[in-house]
């Protein structure tokens, strides 16, 4: 183990220097996807072999209406650079109106974020249906680029 | 004679498995007989399936496993039918089970024997392109996994016996005779491939090494195939750059006795071309075809994408006559016509799209069962009874009935199962045993002990992600006591292994890192139930659909991400809790929406199965669009059929028909739906267990070709009615195909119009022998045996002129007459026609009501606004929402017989629900903490399902209470509750937050220097 630990980090940092321009650290994104539309849409991106940046990790929830603002704030607190929330298109929510509730909550949260000094563009809400694999892949690409422009999440950097 | 509540199915391919599962899940004992040592049939040899590019094994494996371990299905593999006696309701069948010389009860399928066996023979599963041993299993995920000794090649050395730890080898095993007593029989032996040796002279198959068959290419594309998914030239093992596909080899060719179309090869070739280009970078596929028959749901989209996005070349031609070989390079030379010029082109590899022929066993089965075959030795059926043979009590499904694709096969299999079960519905539940799981282990107070199984999924994951590295990483995570990797975690043997390891290691949480929980979650949940664990102690990490497949070119990053995804799953798994079970009572009735032929058949079948059917029709009469049809392609009397069907419905007291009725409101859940009807303006409420959507489609009213501006420009339906009334007079007739179909804004094919046109053209020629008939078309899509009538039409002198979207015919008035100008591609000249009638073949459209109905039932629509089924291949007649089914044109355009198959299929699927009086369900719902609740009523306000309500508790305090049956577990109330009094089970705050924290860990590790330290530090905080 010890041997491995001493060989790995240099290899890793080399890798990053080669791949990304300075400041260089890869950004870390999470995406909350509702089970019925967006998670299926993300699967479809896979089935169709649409390539998108590996920076994003998906967390499955039954509905966007289940997402507590606390989850999102906590993510930023921990250093996640951007959070994507994906749900069914308005009118298509499997539970009728969960996505509408999510939209209201997220808009409020964005205002709060700006107030406490987290750029609200780090949080994005998108509607992705089960047949929109392309839209999912495009959204991730676009979001990653946007967050890259914003740079690392400073709240976290300030903390550490 | 007493009826028997058991069914025998001959043939264990995807059709046989579907019939078996339907029947076994609705209260019947099933004997599934297959001549091969394993079930799975032809589908097990596929790499991918069109039009979704789903991995065939991935979608099939759950069915294989379910069939293999279903407590009411007995597999009789390596078996053949010797004798059949009896009649509908009570048959006695003699079956001979050929000795495998390996004991099924002892063999674990570990495969040690195959490592030591010294004899190697060509592997027929891999189309002879790979070797297998004399003791073998047909494919890695085979069910049953029992090995077999191939006595033709075994030299009896005894090495396998000495190596087998399970003592499963039994050389002396002899054949076994079995006698089965069943009420009904389903025959589904599948198909065979046309023997390409017969085309040796034309295409050099078997002579030129680089001429291969489409099934051979399929095996090459498969991860378990000869070259681990790469396409290589058999002659020199090099990667081919230019690959030609020749279509219709062994199909549409009267000279070899197969004039029919094999229905699937066009799509099969496109799919192979797409996947081959994906697997071999720089490969260019070129498909030579006569008509591109992309007639199914979303097939044309796939065809368009193949051409435009994947850059596959398509060349329309007469059949390619021959292939020659350059002896030096062993490249192949094709001659073809392009833009009126003869061309000669060299290819590195040629793929022959081989046609389907009757199964080897057809004649034997026909003789044993007494069933009639058609002139091509497929099973004979008629359009009104697409799954019935001439012998009562014996039904047919799948490619043995006619060449067809997987969804068509699955629908027929369910349809045949409905007939079989209806016949013996009185004997339901008489021969079955209850499914039991071991007593659930109480894990209260135990520390999490997590087992992780990481899947290679062939090369789907393992080809990108370093799976062993992920496993090593997982072992370092807290609470993980066991981790391993598997070639296919979903295979039957791995399932058994998971159970065994869970018990040995006292696991109390299990994680599978593989594909998506949407398709495979339930399978693994059942597996751990078998080990005494509550199904909610299972968690999945999606490292294929959401990792290896979407980061194919970044293996290092994909491996890192896979580690993170599994780490997140571990974090969540630590906090998972067992959920309680609840029971739901099922109301034994069905609502069928739509009173066309599909809906009527469904209602009748529901009644025959012994349940109440409510048939809802929005107009004032039953029959739908079929009211406008008179006769079928073979002259069948559709009028008479409809009248008889109506009277059967009228006289059945289990069916209640509601005319002039619409659905106004819909609520409830599987087994307990409630529908609010508007019956002639009056309200009525029905309670029902299931719903079948059979709302049909409609004919497009053309806006082009001067429709409506001339009284002799008609649609096929309108013209058919005139023709039938004998009111048609004239000498020259022109038909235009694809009116409103295969257009940019409506890209799908309406499937039925080519055949409809041929039918009417033949009728014109019959009634007016001296007339001239022209059909202007894009592709003639008369698939299956319909091709024969296309051939007839050509012979009858019907003239065919092709056009495409750029060269559409122009219609104008010529005095009182009609003038049509069109470019004849063949002679490259404009021709003008002056017909007496212009007949348009308009698109079949989805109903406008689909959108509202979909909203009400909460089911999805496809992009073309037809209803979207749960899975395009394997669940064609059901929605993801439990207890809601679909059939007929509501799904997509299709033929009469296909609608009837689907109607019965939907009933068969519905019976798996209706046959259970009580259904057990685990409930991931929301619950209220009485002590925290302040009775504010916010949850009551916010819930769309009226699940929470305020009730007075002992002390007079108002608290919220959530109705279990109404709660859907969406969690909206938990978020809305200002006091944190509501918890959504299985998606509790800490369970979700643990994943967020775990996702962030990576960052901590990267930002602080010594990686290992940071990682363990972070993990501990994650566990808090
Ligand atoms: S279920 Fe997708 S947003 Fe509600």
Radius of gyration of chain A: 17 Å
Low-confidence stretches of chain A: 1-22
The ligands bound in this entry are: FE2/S2 (inorganic) cluster
**Most extensive chain interface and residues per partner:** A-B, 58 and 64 residues
Characterize the main sheet of chain B: 5 strands, parallel
Beta-strand content bin of chain A: 5-15%
User: Order of strands across the biggest sheet of chain A?
Assistant: 2-1-3-4
Shape category of chain B: globular
- The number of distinct helices of chain A, counting runs of at least 4 residues, comes to 6
Structural class, from secondary structure content of chain B? alpha/beta
Characteristic key phrases:
heterodimer; A: 160 residues; Rossmann fold; 4-stranded parallel sheet; 6 helices; 14% strand; B: alpha/beta; FAD/NAD(P)-binding domain; Alpha-Beta Plaits; 7 domains; 5-stranded parallel sheet; 52 strands; 28% helix; globular; binds FE2/S2 (inorganic) cluster
What would you note in describing this structure?
Chain A is an alpha/beta fold and 160 residues long. The two termini of chain A are 27 Å apart. The radius of gyration of chain A is 17 Å and the shape is globular. Chain A has one domain (25-157): Rossmann fold (3-Layer(aba) Sandwich). Chain A has helices at 2-19, 38-47, 69-77, 98-116, 133-150, 154-159; strands at 29-34, 56-61, 82-87, 123-127. In chain B, 28% of the residues lie in helices and 25% in strands. The model of chain B is unreliable at 1006-1024 (pLDDT under 50). Classes of the chains: A alpha/beta (160), B alpha/beta (1024). The complex binds FE2/S2 (inorganic) cluster (FES).
Topology:
The complex is a heterodimer of chains A (160) and B (1024).
Chain A: H1 2-19, E1 29-34, H2 38-47, E2 56-61, H3 69-77, E3 82-87, H4 98-116, E4 123-127, H5 133-150, H6 154-159
Helix pairs in contact in A: 2-5
Chain B: E1 6-10, H1 14-25, E2 29-33, E3 48-49, E4 54-55, H2 56-69, E5 73-76, E6 79-87, E7 90-97, H3 112-116, E8 120-122, E9 131-133, E10 135-136, E11 148-149, H4 159-163, E12 176-182, E13 184-187, E14 192-193, H5 200-203, E15 211-213, H6 214-221, E16 242-249, H7 265-279, E17 284-289, H8 299-308, E18 313-316, E19 323-325, E20 332-338, E21 341-347, E22 349-354, E23 356-357, H9 362-369, E24 394-396, H10 406-423, E25 450-455, H11 467-475, E26 480-486, H12 492-504, E27 509-514, H13 517-530, E28 538-542, H14 544-548, H15 555-574, E29 581-585, E30 589-593, H16 597-608, E31 612-616, H17 638-651, E32 655-658, E33 661-669, E34 672-679, E35 682-688, E36 690-693, E37 697-699, E38 713-715, H18 716-724, E39 732-739, H19 753-767, E40 772-777, H20 787-795, E41 799-802, E42 810-814, E43 817-824, E44 829-833, E45 837-842, E46 844-846, H21 850-857, E47 884-886, H22 896-914, E48 918-922, E49 926-928, H23 938-942, E50 948-952, E51 958-962, H24 972-976, E52 982-984, H25 989-1007, H26 1011-1023
Parallel strand pairs in B: 1-2, 1-13, 2-5, 13-24, 15-22, 16-17, 16-22, 17-18, 25-26, 25-27, 27-28, 30-31, 30-36, 31-32, 36-47, 38-45, 39-40, 39-45, 40-41
Antiparallel strand pairs in B: 3-4, 6-7, 7-12, 8-9, 10-11, 14-23, 19-20, 20-21, 29-48, 33-34, 34-35, 37-46, 42-43, 43-44, 49-52, 50-51
Helix pairs in contact in B: 1-2, 1-10, 1-22, 6-7, 7-8, 10-22, 11-15, 12-13, 15-25, 16-17, 16-22, 18-19, 19-20, 25-26
Bound molecules: FE2/S2 (inorganic) cluster (FES).
């Amino acid at each position: 183990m010890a041997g491995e630990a001493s060989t790995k980090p240099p290899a890793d940092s080399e890798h990053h220097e080669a791949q990304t321009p300075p400041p260089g650290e890869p950004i870390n994104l999470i995406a909350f996807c509702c089970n019925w539309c967006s998670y299926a849409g993300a699967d479809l991106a896979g089935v169709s072999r649409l390539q998108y940046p590996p920076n994003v990790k998906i967390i499955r929830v039954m509905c966007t209406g289940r997402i507590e603002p606390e989850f999102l704030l906590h993510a930023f607190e921990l250093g996640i650079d951007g959070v994507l929330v994906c749900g069914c298109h308005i009118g298509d929510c499997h539970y009728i109106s969960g996505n509408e509730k999510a939209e209201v909550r997220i808009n409020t949260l964005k205002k709060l974020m700006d107030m406490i000094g987290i750029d609200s563009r780090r949080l994005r809400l998108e509607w992705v249906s089960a047949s929109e694999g392309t839209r999912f892949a495009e959204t991730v690409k676009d979001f990653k680029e946007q967050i890259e422009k914003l740079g690392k999440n400073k709240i976290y950097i300030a903390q550490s | 004679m007493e009826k028997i509540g058991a069914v025998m199915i001959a043939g264990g391919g995807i059709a046989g498995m579907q019939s078996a599962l339907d029947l076994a899940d609705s209260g019947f004992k099933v004997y599934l007989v297959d001549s091969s040592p394993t079930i799975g049939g032809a589908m097990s040899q596929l790499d991918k399936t069109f039009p979704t590019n789903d991995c065939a094994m991935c979608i099939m494996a759950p069915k294989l496993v379910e069939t293999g371990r279903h407590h009411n299905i007995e597999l009789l593999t390596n078996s053949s039918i010797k004798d059949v006696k009896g009649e509908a309701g009570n048959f006695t069948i003699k079956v001979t089970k050929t000795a495998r010389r390996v004991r099924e009860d002892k063999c674990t399928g570990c495969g040690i024997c195959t490592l030591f066996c010294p004899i190697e023979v060509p592997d027929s599963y891999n189309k002879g392109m790979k070797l297998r041993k004399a003791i073998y299993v047909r494919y890695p995920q085979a069910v049953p996994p029992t090995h077999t000794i191939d006595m033709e090649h075994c030299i009896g050395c005894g090495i396998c016996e000495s190596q087998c730890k399970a003592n499963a080898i039994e050389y002396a095993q002899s054949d076994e005779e079995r006698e089965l007593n069943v009420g009904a029989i389903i025959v589904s032996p599948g198909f065979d491939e046309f023997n390409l040796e017969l085309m040796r002279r034309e295409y050099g198959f078997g002579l030129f090494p680089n001429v291969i068959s489409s099934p051979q290419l399929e095996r090459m594309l498969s991860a378990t195939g000869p070259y681990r998914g790469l396409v290589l030239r058999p002659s020199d093992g090099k990667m081919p750059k230019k690959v030609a596909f020749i279509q219709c080899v062994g199909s549409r060719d009267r000279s070899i006795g197969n004039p029919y179309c094999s229905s699937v090869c066009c799509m099969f070739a496109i799919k192979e071309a797409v996947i081959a280009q994906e697997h071999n970078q720089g490969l260019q596929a070129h498909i030579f075809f006569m008509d591109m028959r992309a007639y199914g749901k979303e097939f044309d989209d796939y065809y368009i994408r193949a051409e435009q996005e994947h850059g596959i070349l398509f060349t329309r031609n007469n059949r390619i006559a021959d292939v020659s070989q350059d002896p030096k390079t062993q490249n192949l030379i094709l001659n073809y016509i392009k833009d009126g010029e003869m061309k000669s082109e060299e290819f590195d590899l040629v793929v022959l799209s081989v046609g389907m022929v009757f199964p080897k066993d057809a004649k034997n089965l026909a003789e044993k069962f007494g069933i009639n075959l058609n002139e091509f030795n497929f099973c004979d059926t008629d359009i009104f009874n697409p799954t019935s043979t001439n012998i009562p009590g014996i039904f047919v499904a799948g490619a043995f009935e006619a060449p067809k694709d997987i969804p068509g096969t699955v629908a027929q299999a369910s349809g045949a199962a409905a007939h079989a079960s209806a016949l013996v519905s009185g004997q339901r539940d008489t021969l079955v045993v209850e499914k039991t799981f071991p007593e659930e282990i109480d894990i209260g107070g135990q520390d999490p002990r997590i087992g992780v199984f990481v899947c290679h999924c062939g090369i789907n994951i393992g080809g990108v992600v370093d799976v062993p590295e992920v496993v090593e990483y997982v072992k370092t995570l807290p609470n993980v006591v066991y981790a391993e990797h598997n070639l296919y975690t979903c295979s039957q043997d791995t399932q058994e292994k998971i159970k065994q390891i869970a018990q040995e290691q006292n696991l109390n949480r299990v994680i599978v890192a593989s594909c998506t929980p949407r398709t495979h979650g339930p399978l693994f949940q059942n597996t751990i139930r078998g080990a005494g664990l509550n199904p909610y102690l299972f968690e999945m990490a999606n490292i294929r659909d959401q990792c290896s497949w979407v980061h194919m070119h970044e293996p290092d990053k994909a491996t890192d991400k896979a580690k993170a995804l599994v780490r997140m799953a571990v974090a969540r798994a630590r906090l998972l809790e067992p959920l309680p079970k609840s029971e739901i009572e099922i109301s034994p009735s069905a609502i069928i929406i739509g009173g066309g032929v599909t809906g009527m058949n469904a209602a009748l079948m529901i009644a025959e199965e012994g349940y109440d059917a409510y048939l809802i029709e929005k107009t004032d009469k039953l029959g739908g669009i079929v009211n406008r049809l008179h006769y079928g392609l073979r002259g069948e009397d559709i009028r008479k059929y409809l009248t008889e069907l109506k009277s059967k419905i009228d006289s059945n007291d289990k069916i209640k028909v509601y005319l002039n009725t619409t659905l106004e409101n819909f609520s409830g859940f599987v087994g307990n739906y409630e529908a609010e009807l508007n019956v002639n303006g009056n309200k009525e409420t029905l309670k029902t267990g299931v719903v079948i959507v059979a709302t049909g489609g409609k004919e497009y009213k053309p806006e082009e070709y001067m429709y409506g501006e001339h009284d002799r420009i008609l649609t096929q339906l309108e013209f058919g009615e005139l023709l039938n009334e004998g009111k048609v007079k004239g000498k020259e007739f022109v038909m235009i195909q694809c009116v409103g179909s295969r257009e940019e804004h409506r890209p799908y094919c309406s499937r039925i119009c080519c055949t409809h046109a041929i039918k009417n053209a033949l009728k014109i020629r019959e009634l007016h022998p001296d007339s001239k008939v022209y059909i202007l078309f894009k592709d003639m899509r008369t698939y299956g045996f319909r091709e024969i009538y296309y051939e007839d039409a050509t012979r009858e002198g019907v003239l065919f002129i092709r056009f495409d979207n750029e060269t559409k015919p122009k219609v104008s008035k010529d005095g009182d007459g009609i003038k049509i100008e069109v470019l004849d591609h063949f002679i490259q000249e404009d021709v003008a026609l002056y017909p007496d009638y212009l007949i348009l073949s308009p698109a079949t459209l989805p109903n406008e009501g689909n959108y509202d109905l979909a909203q009400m039932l909460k089911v999805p629509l496809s992009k073309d606004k037809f209803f979207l089924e749960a899975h395009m291949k394997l669940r064609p007649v059901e929605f993801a929402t439990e207890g809601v089914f679909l059939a007929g044109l509501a799904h997509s355009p299709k033929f009469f017989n296909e609608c009837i198959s689907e109607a019965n299929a939907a009933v068969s699927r519905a019976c798996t629900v209706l046959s259970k009086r009580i259904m057990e369900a685990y409930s991931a719902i929301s619950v209220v903490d009485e002590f925290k609740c302040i009775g504010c009523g916010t949850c009551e306000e916010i819930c769309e399902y009226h699940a929470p309500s305020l009730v007075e508790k002992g002390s007079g305090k108002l608290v919220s209470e959530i109705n279990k049956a109404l709660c859907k577990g969406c969690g909206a109330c938990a978020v809305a509750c200002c006091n944190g009094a509501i918890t959504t089970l299985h998606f509790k705050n800490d369970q979700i937050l643990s994943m967020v924290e775990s996702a962030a860990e990576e960052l901590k590790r990267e930002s602080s220097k010594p990686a290992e330290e940071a990682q363990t530090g972070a993990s501990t905080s994650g566990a808090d």
